[in-house]
Q: What sequence folds into this?
């Protein structure tokens, strides 16, 4: 595991060697903040919370996380640098973890760049910092769980477009499973038992993110996000070693 | 130092490498020849642990690459065909990354290793330039520098002089020759004179099989008076 740190460092700094990082950070910040203001009614609510900001994250991540993760392995495969990487004395697991952590740290940075919002809140009112911190924690954890899917998809192909489209597709499914529309469809239209619909909804990002935005950090939710990351990264190693 | 036994690799229905066996000892410079598509690069990828062989093994210093690939990779320096490197990094950053992965973590050790590799391959004028802006020959030298960085006991070089100007070709050849006494070197090439100039052994492979494994002198003695390319053509005539 000693080799994770140089891989991490190269990958993380690598984001800033190209304009990709700056475009991504700005687009992420603008779209998340604008959604909170115009669609979420950030100021209209007259309550000092970031709920309207975090509310859109699962939908925003649907496109932005695959955009950040699509190049992780596809790019290495296309340019032939995988051959260089995997003839250096590192294991596949170290490479997968190193690259994943770098992308995750980058994503966390994008999320945390909205810090002027809670500061504004503190200036205007008296926000509940516990709720804000749990919202950020949930968002970052959920981002990692999206990214695991994207990293896996990008290991399957050397084409970044395919990698992006597949990631969006899987993430859309993992979001929709948790919508009330979908569970209504399951229980009403298909006549499934409510317990079954709930069990399915358990596999959704939405279901596990909700409590975080209300200030509740449930170990079950934390475990879900970490399990999804672990599972996708395990498959990622398998996909690269095949 | 390198023992290759019965390596086989099949792509779909095509046997790219079909039971290749040879050994390379310390002090040897082995020239790996063969027509395009003969299986040279594929064999090298299996020796360096990038591809898993379908059958057979490669041992480096007594370590089986299919059993302990990381240990083998520590001992090897490998220049892949067309010298891949991260295009957005500068030469210095890239070699610094390689040094860190190769275990030179302390700043001064890292710097010493990078400087040594840069001097050996004459990269000093472009050390702060990003790799994507380098000419083909300089990119090739970066790949060579990367392979030499940790002064490995075994070098596997896939067409090391490809894209170099005549001066640099000579420079790289004498560099390899001077280092070789303490190393085992395998290099593939399409330049037959290169074999004459530096190799003390030649292997010719054709359609995945070894068709000749001897010294350059013995190879010449096969058809006295003939040019090397004529001998090459006779040995590989089945492969077009
Ligand atoms: N990933 C792959 N998928 C399918 N076939 C492959 C793949 N890689 C190599 N081959 C085939 O295996 C054979 C051997 O290829 P290899 O690259 O080892 O040849 P080579 O001797 O290095 O040739 P060259 O002199 O052109 O570099 C070729 O027929 C090639 O088409
Ligand atoms: Mg080749």
A:
């Amino acid at each position: 595991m000693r080799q994770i740190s140089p891989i991490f460092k190269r990958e993380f700094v690598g984001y800033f060697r190209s304009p990709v990082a700056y475009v991504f950070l700005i687009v992420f910040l603008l779209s998340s903040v604008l959604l909170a203001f115009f669609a979420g009614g950030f100021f209209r609510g007259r309550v000092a919370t970031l709920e309207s900001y975090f509310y859109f994250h699962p939908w925003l991540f649907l496109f932005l996380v695959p955009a950040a993760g699509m190049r992780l392995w596809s790019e290495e495969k296309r340019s032939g640098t995988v051959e260089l990487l995997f003839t250096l004395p590192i294991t596949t697991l170290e490479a997968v973890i190193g690259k994943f952590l770098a992308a995750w740290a980058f994503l966390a940075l994008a999320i945390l760049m909205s810090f002027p919002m809670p500061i504004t809140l503190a200036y205007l009112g008296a926000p509940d910092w516990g709720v804000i911190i749990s919202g950020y924690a949930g968002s970052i954890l959920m981002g990692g769980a999206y990214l695991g899917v994207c990293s896996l998809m990008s290991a399957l192909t050397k084409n970044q477009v395919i990698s992006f489209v597949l990631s969006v597709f899987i993430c859309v499914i993992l979001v929709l499973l948790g919508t009330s529309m979908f569970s209504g469809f399951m229980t009403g239209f298909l006549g499934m038992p409510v317990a079954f619909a709930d069990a399915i909804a358990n596999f959704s990002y939405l279901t596990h993110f909700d409590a975080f935005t209300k200030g509740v950090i449930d170990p079950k939710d934390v475990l879900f996000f970490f399990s999804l990351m672990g599972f996708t990264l395990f498959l990622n190693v398998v996909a690269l070693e095949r | 130092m390198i023992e290759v036994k019965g390596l086989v690799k099949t792509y779909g229905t095509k046997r790219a490498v079909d039971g290749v066996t040879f050994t390379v000892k310390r002090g040897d410079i082995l020239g790996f020849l063969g027509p395009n598509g003969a299986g040279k690069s594929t064999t090298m990828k299996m020796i360096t642990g990038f591809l898993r062989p379908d059958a057979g093994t490669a041992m480096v210093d007594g370590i089986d690459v299919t059993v302990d690939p990381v240990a083998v990779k520590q001992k090897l320096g490998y220049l892949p065909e067309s010298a891949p490197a991260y295009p957005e990094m500068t030469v210095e950053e890239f070699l610094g990354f390689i040094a860190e992965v190769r275990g030179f973590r302390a700043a001064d050790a890292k710097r010493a290793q990078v400087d040594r590799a840069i001097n050996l391959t004459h990269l000093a004028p472009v050390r702060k330039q990003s790799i994507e802006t380098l000419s083909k020959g300089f990119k090739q030298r970066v790949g060579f520098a990367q392979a030499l960085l940790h002064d490995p006991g075994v070098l596997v070089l896939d067409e090391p002089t490809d894209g170099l100007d005549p001066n640099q070709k000579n420079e790289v050849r004498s560099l390899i020759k001077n280092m070789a006494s303490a190393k085992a070197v395998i290099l593939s090439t399409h330049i037959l004179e290169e074999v004459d100039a530096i190799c003390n052994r030649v292997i010719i492979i054709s359609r995945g099989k070894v068709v000749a494994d001897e010294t350059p002198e013995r190879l010449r003695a096969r058809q006295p008076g003939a040019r090397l390319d004529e001998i090459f053509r006779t040995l590989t005539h089945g492969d077009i």
